[in-house]
Each structure stands twice: as C-alpha cells, then as structure tokens.
UniProtKB/TrEMBL annotation:
UniProt keyword annotation of Metal-binding present: no
Catalysed transformations (reactions): (S)-malate + NAD(+) = oxaloacetate + NADH + H(+)
UniProt KW keywords: NAD, Oxidoreductase, Tricarboxylic acid cycle
Name the UniProt record assigns to this protein: Malate dehydrogenase
NCBIfam families: MalateDH-SF1, PRK05442.1
Length: 327
C-alpha cells in the first residue's frame, strides 16, 4: 500500500535555488524513493507565471512520487498542514552588496511567514531557513511562531560545512566523505568558524593530516567564509545548486538521522556554550529519530574563543537590528 503523502512547502519557488531544489525533492532525495510528496510552492504574485513554468517541467519529469503540486502567493495556503518547510524566498545579495544590507530587505518576509507557520503548519513541522541572512531570518521566524517549538526552526550552515569538507579533503588528500566530526559554529557569513580540532579521517586527527596550521587559519577559514562572495563575483549570481544540495543534506539528515555522525546546523540556542537562549547559532549536531541533539561540552582554546565570540557578536548585532521589527 502507498504511504500517505508528506507535505513540503518551499518558498521562492521561481528562483534559482528552487530550480535545483524542487527537482531533488520531487526525485525523492529528501524523504526517500518510497514516500509520496506534495509540494506547496510559494512565491510573490508577480512570479506565479514563472512558478507555473517550473511546475510544467516538474510534470515533464514524471517523478513517480510527486503526488501533487500547489502554487500560491499566500503563505497560509503554502504552509497549511506541512511536515517540512524550506524557506528560500528572499532577495539574494548582488555584486558589492554586504550581507547586512539584506537584513532590512528580508526581515519583514520572515515575520509574516513565521506568523503563517504558527497558524497553519503541523505542530511538529521541520523548518529550514535558507534565505539570507539565514540565522537571523530563522530567529525572526521562530519569534513570530510562538506556538511552534523553536528548536524546529533551523538555519542552513550546511553549505559552509560542505565547503569546508571539500577544502580539507583537497588539502589532506583524503575523501570528504571520510572526514568526521567537523564543526561549523555561528553565523552563515564570513564570520563562521569552521573548527577542525575534533575532526578525524579513519581515526587519524585531521589537523595532523593537514599539517599546516597557518593554512588552516589564513586560507581555509577565509576561503570558506568568503566562498559565497567569490561565487557571486564569478557567476554574477549567488550559489544555487550547491545551496539546494546543502538544503537537501540538512533536511535529509534531520529526517533520517546521521548514525552518530556530526553535521552543522543553525539551531535556536538552549544557552549552551554561553550563546543566549533563542539565538540561532551554527553548532555540531547529531540527528536521530527525526530529531537532533547538539554536541555539548566541547572545549574552547584561545583561537576558538576569539572566532566563536566574533561570530556570536555579529549575531547579537543582527538580533538588535531586528528588535524593533519584532516589537
Ligand atoms: P532568487 O532571486 O533567484 O529567487 C528568490 C525568489 O524568492 C524569487 O523567485 C522571488 O520572487 C522570491 N521571493 C521574494 N520574496 C518572497 C516572499 N516574500 N515570499 C515568497 N517568495 C519570495 O534567489 P536565490 O538565488 O534562489 O536565493 C534565495 C535566497 O537564498 C537569497 O536570500 C540568498 O542569499 C540565499 N542563499 C542562502 C544560502 C545559505 O547557505 N543559507 C546559500 C545561497 C543563497
Ligand atoms: C552563499 O554562501 O553562497 C550565499 O549565502 C550567498 C551569499 O550571499 O553569500
């Protein structure tokens, strides 16, 4: 017997990231090949025609498990009874624009969408915010959805995590899939802190395999931090397929579990590591049974403390920047 369909809302459906993401979800990359999915697609009124075109292409793929597609410009229709929501729809950064400029441009969107989620989504909905600034947008969404568990409203740090894995793998001459226990702390921004102190490859410490602390500090960290800007510079557009891939990885692992492996997720702080409660902060986490647990009790050295405090300060400033909006 076929399983009942799950409902997945995706916002920004006419945009670049969704042009990759929607096809991956419809193909079963999120919930599995045996799980029917209903896509509930949100975009602005002026983008409805373009979403219609994307849906024609989804139909033309004849995905066996795509049970239905809803197209709407009303968040309450898009989020009705959803099991999962991937909030992509927001203005992206263009050449020369700083991420902070996006804060004011995009904050209001997440207030409205948080309120809609609060009203109509399933009470255990899993939400991933991709639209930038992702951590603070997730914070706004959670504050605007007081009846939903704040821990279920997460932000995407997985692109930074995957970027760091690839750079480390290249440097150390190993496979990225063999790197375990990498942690990306803080904000999805150039201040993020990719921490390799606990990482191993087949039991060997990654820092030893890399063998070049100066490269780690002076090349790896800025390369990962500024990768989004480098892609905008090169492509004239922000990352899209890799962002969609990271969104699939984040949600897939949350839904299906990580078998004890660490992944990096932006989650509402419970106060651990001294991050004020509610701030959406990148942390190492382990997923199991449709839930996640933050890896706790990791020690900080002087370098880590400086990096950690820098990215936390940026998030506290962003929070202060939206406090008027949240009332
Ligand atoms: P895009 O401009 O191609 O598409 C954005 C889409 O969102 C458009 O179709 C637009 O009409 C829609 N939109 C705007 N306001 C909306 C609203 N209120 N409700 C619903 N839809 C709305 O942009 P993109 O390249 O797909 O990027 C989307 C966002 O993702 C940007 O903010 C970008 O910076 C961010 N991003 C985040 C990461 C990450 O790792 N967290 C990575 C890449 C991009
Ligand atoms: C990225 O990291 O590629 C995105 O967040 C886009 C950006 O503005 O950096």
């Amino acid at each position: 017997m076929t399983k009942p369909a799950v409902r997945v809302a995706v916002t920004g459906a006419a945009g670049q990231i969704c042009y990759s993401l929607l096809f991956r979800i419809a193909n079963g990359d999120l919930y599995g090949k045996d799980q029917p999915v209903i896509l509930q697609l949100l975009d602005l009124p002026q983008a409805q025609g373009a979403v219609g075109g994307v849906v024609m292409e989804l139909e033309d793929c004849a995905f066996p498990n795509l049970a239905d597609v809803v197209i709407t410009s009303d968040p309450k229709v898009a989020f009705k009874d959803i099991d999962a929501g991937i909030l992509v729809g927001a203005r992206p950064r263009s050449k020369g624009m700083e991420r902070a400029d996006l804060l004011s441009a995009n904050a209001e969107i997440f207030k409205v969408q948080g309120a809609a989620l609060n009203e109509v989504a399933k009470r255990d909905v899993k939400v991933l915010v991709v639209g930038n600034p992702a951590n603070t947008n997730a914070y706004i969404t959670a504050k605007s959805a007081p009846d939903l568990p704040a821990r279920n409203i997460t932000a995407m740090l997985r692109l930074d995590h995957n970027r760091a894995l690839s750079q480390f793998a290249k440097k150390a001459g190993v496979l990225s899939q063999d790197i375990e226990k990498l942690a990306v702390w803080g904000n999805h921004s150039p201040t993020m802190y990719a921490d390799y102190r606990f990482a191993t490859v087949k039991g060997k410490p990654l820092p030893e395999l890399v063998g070049d602390e100066a490269w780690y500090r002076d090349t790896l960290i800025p390369t990962v931090g500024k990768r989004g800007a480098a892609i905008i510079e090169a492509r004239g557009l922000s990352s899209a397929a890799s962002a969609a891939n990271a969104a699939i990885d984040h949600m897939h692992d949350w839904i299906h579990g990580t078998n004890g492996a660490w992944v990096s997720m932006g989650v509402a702080s419970d106060g651990s590591y001294g991050v004020p409660e509610g701030i959406v902060f990148g942390v190492p986490a382990v997923c199991a049974n449709g839930d996640y647990e933050v890896v706790k009790g990791l020690p900080m050295d002087d370098f880590s403390k400086t990096k950690f405090d820098g990215t936390l300060k940026e998030l506290l400033d962003e929070r202060d920047g939206v406090s008027a909006l949240l009332g």
